[in-house]
Amino acid sequence: MYYVALVLMLVTGCGSGNGGATEATGTTATTMTPQGKALVVYYSWSGHTKEMAEAIQANTGADIYRIEPKEPYTNDYDTLVRLAKEERSEGKRPAMAKAAPDLQGYDTVYLGFPNWWGDMSMLLYTFLDSVDLSGKKVVVFAPAGVVVSRILSIQLSGWNRMQRLSKAFM
Questions:
Q1: CATH number for the domain including 129?
Q2: Dihedral pair phi/psi, residue 159, rounded to 5°
Q3: Section 51-73 average pLDDT
Q4: Cα distance between residue 71 and residue 97, in whole Å
Q5: What is the Cα–Cα distance from 86 to 83, expressed in whole angstroms?
Q6: pLDDT in tens, 90-104
């Protein structure tokens, strides 16, 4: 069974020192620490998601893995906007620079990504297509936390591999 929690944080609130990440459960937020071995997996274009990932790692003791594209994205925002919209409209799955980590030894996976126009970057879809999250507690985080619930309930619900994840959230 999948279990999902949302980490709704602003980058400025990452180092709160509460000893764990925040878990959203209905309308109540509680402190969450990983059970068993944990891995923080993230993609960051501007550095905001990286800051959050490092804060989660520092507070939980989790291992960390950065997803990177094989062909690095441009640093020019306007060019990136055009490229990202093209990838999204064409359903592209950009290649990752290195293979996804083996998740077998992990009980909890923190998954972080920037909000790109109400969605994840297509690179995250590439990653999710390449891993098996069966039996994992999945904690999703993003700098724009409000968007995370929309992504989970709409974007991820179409994935066979992720259907139970989105149903557990809803």
A1: 3.40.50.360
A2: -80, 125
A3: 95
A4: 7
A5: 5
A6: 999 999 999 999 999
Whole domain around residue 132: which residue ranges?
3-169
Q: How many CA atoms lie within 13 A of 85 on its CB side?
A: 7
Q: Give the closest residue to 168 by CA, choosing from 143, 137, 141.
A: 137
CA-to-CA distance for 25 and 27, rounded, in angstroms? 6
Residues above pLDDT 70, as percent of the chain: 64
Mean pLDDT of the chain: 73
Computed from CA positions of residues 147, 153, 159, 163, in that sequence, does the dihedral angle turn out positive or negative?
Answer: positive
Token pair of 126 as six digits: 């590439």
Q: How many structural domains comprise the chain?
A: 1
Position 34 confidence tier, pLDDT thresholds 50, 70, 90: low
pLDDT at 115 (0 to 100): 80
- Mind giving me the DSSP string for the chain? --EEEEEE--GGGTT---SSEEEEETTEEEEE--SS-EEEEE--SSSHHHHHHHHHHHHH--EEEE--BSSPPPS-HHHHHHHHHHHHHHT--PPBSSPPPP-TT-SEEEEE---SSSS--HHHHHHHHT---TT-EEEEEESSHHHHHHIIIIIGGG-TTTHHHHHHH-
